[in-house]
Design brief:
Low-confidence stretches of chain B: 241-248
Radius of gyration of chain B: 17 Å
Shape of chain B: globular
Helix content of chain B: 40-55%
Distance between the termini of chain A: 36 Å
Low-confidence stretches of chain A: none
Oligomer: heterodimer
Strand content of chain A: 15-25%
Strand order of the largest sheet of chain B: 3-2-1-4-5-6-7
Number of strands of chain A: 7
Largest sheet of chain A: 7 strands, parallel
Mean pLDDT of chain B: 89
Radius of gyration of chain A: 18 Å
Largest sheet of chain B: 7 strands, parallel
Structural class of chain B: alpha/beta
Number of helices of chain B: 8
Order of helices and strands of chain B: EHEHEHEHEHEHHEH
Distance between the termini of chain B: 16 Å
Strand content of chain B: 5-15%
Structural class of chain A: alpha/beta
Strand order of the largest sheet of chain A: 3-2-1-4-5-6-7
Shape of chain A: globular
Order of helices and strands of chain A: EHEHEHEHEHHEHHEHH
């Protein structure tokens, strides 16, 4: 099996790459910072191909797609994502442009071209990583949440047309993960013990990608939070405001 | 018919006002004596005849360049001396129709910019003016967010993004400004034709833009409404509710 992972250098993408290599698959790892991936590609010579691409930049994504032309994928995980947290009006608008480019434009562009140009094998799968914020809202990360809602809606819309091309679509809605990226955006002295370990989450996502379901809330905590958010949307968002927004100080982007 | 003079003339921004729902909204508010800054991509030579009122100022701004469009609008507001804004209706949108795997990159970028990015840029720039007036930000979504739409994948994504933005932002801005969203169903505007969709008789079943425009005005007035779906049959309340009765 050959897989493509974006945002493969750190966090969840890293865990997914390591797990896939450990299982004996071929991985094409993409990140803007390929330095941490060098060791992996040397140890797994032949199995791990690394491409440098900055998903903020359309030209870079187009170049990446040209490089990918020689491959055919059974699994694509569009994992790369960034965040910007703080009061909506305090975050500079350039940070929002970056968010839209990386979290929304790049995955739509990649998915559309990978399927359209026939770079996906029969019975392959595209995995979009949304967020639990899709269910509960995210005051203090309004635009981040909006991009994640948008990508979830895109995934839901393309499920049928992509199925005609024999490509399955899975959307994952993970809750807080214990990564450097998540720590940076969480309020100070927040409890990290309830966060999910990326290694564990990677295993769960890969298992779900083999299955038939189209949406996946990994772990019981995310599952119940998601259910609560859909049943009581206003209350859930209000709780998020109390828990996160009111504890926020300086914007982080 | 209901053009009673408002208690106070409000300052209202309407995007996507050169045609369709936006044009009707601009006309309706201007007719009631409010000051409207209308904007769209097209050039309009004669504002007075298009909007049928002297209360409308029109500036053409292309939302596919959100930064530039926002700058143009903010500068215009400074020029005409607006230091507060009572209502901003972010209505401008564009669509591309077809199988998502054939969607050109420029089509994706265009929709993301006009429908989503521009709304964020404008909300960001207008926030201080809205806070001063304790105003209202009204976004226009689409019923496509409630149903998977294979042919409108990116369009649906942008509208779902607005819905999500509205949800979180309403909670953030609570007490300072209202943030609302309406989701109109298929409407008899030129958007489908511009997207290259030939509908023929199906259009007869679509809502009239007038009906959608009055439903949006109703949602603006109602304090308890934060998110409303406007569909063909269950919305006659908007038609009978008295325009110009409440704050706006």
């Amino acid at each position: 099996m050959k897989a493509l992972i974006t945002g493969a250098a750190h966090g969840l993408g890293r865990a997914l790459t390591e797990e896939l290599l450990h299982q004996g698959h071929d991985v094409v790892a993409v990140d803007r910072d390929t330095e941490p991936l060098n060791a992996l590609s040397i140890i797994n010579a032949g199995a791990c191909t690394v491409y440098n691409a900055d998903l903020q930049n359309v030209g870079s994504v187009t170049r990446l797609l040209t490089n990918l032309r020689t491959h055919e994928f059974d699994l694509v995980i569009l994992n790369a994502g960034i965040s910007a947290t703080g009061k909506f009006e305090d975050i500079p608008v350039v940070a929002y442009d970056r968010l839209i480019a990386v979290n929304l434009f790049a995955p739509i562009h990649l998915a559309s071209r990978l399927v359209g140009d026939g770079l996906m094998t029969q019975k392959s799968k595209i995995v979009f990583i949304s967020s639990l914020s899709h269910a509960v809202g995210y005051p203090g990360g309004a635009v981040y949440a909006a991009t994640k809602d948008a990508i979830a809606a895109y995934a839901r819309s393309v499920a049928k047309p992509f199925k005609k091309r024999r490509v399955g679509v899975l959307t994952v809605f993970p809750g807080p993960i214990n990564t450097e990226h998540a720590k940076k955006h969480a309020p100070d002295n927040s409890d990290t013990s309830k966060r999910m370990e990326p290694q564990k989450l990677a295993k769960m996502i890969l298992k779900a990608a083999k299955g038939r379901s189209r949406i996946y809330y990994p772990g019981s905590r995310a599952y119940f939070a998601g259910m609560f958010g859909r049943m009581f949307p206003t209350l859930a968002t209000r709780m998020m405001r109390k828990g996160l927004y009111e504890k926020m100080k300086d914007p982080i982007h | 018919m209901f053009s009673s003079k408002p208690r106070r003339a409000h300052r209202i921004l309407v995007t996507g006002a050169s045609d369709g729902i936006g044009l009707l909204l601009a006309r309706a508010y201007a007719r009631r004596g409010h000051h409207v800054l209308a904007t769209g991509r097209r050039h309009i030579a004669d504002e007075k005849t298009t909007f049928r009122s002297p209360n409308v100022i029109y500036r053409s701004a292309d939302l596919s360049e959100p930064e530039e469009a926002t700058r143009t609008l903010i500068e215009t507001m400074q020029d005409i001396g607006w230091r507060r804004l009572d209502l901003a209706i972010l209505n401008g949108a564009t669509a591309w129709v077809g199988p998502p795997e054939d969607e050109p990159v420029n089509g994706i970028r265009n929709q993301l910019s006009v429908n989503f990015s521009a709304a964020i840029h404008l909300a960001h720039a207008l926030a201080p003016l809205l806070f001063v007036a304790n105003g209202q930000l009204m976004m226009v979504g689409s019923t496509s967010v409630n149903k998977a739409q294979g042919a409108f994948a990116t369009y649906t994504a942008t509208k779902a993004g607005l819905d999500g933005l509205c949800r979180s932002l309403a909670e953030e801005w609570q007490g300072r400004a209202d943030v609302k969203i309406v989701h109109p169903g298929p409407t008899r505007t030129n958007m489908h034709a511009k997207a290259g969709l030939k509908l023929g008789l199906v259009r007869l079943f679509f809502m009239s833009p007038r009906r959608v425009s009055s439903a949006i005005q109703c949602a603006v007035r109602r304090k308890d409404v934060r998110r409303r779906v406007i569909t063909r049959f269950f919305g006659f309340r908007a038609r009978f509710s008295r325009a110009g009765k409440g704050r706006l």
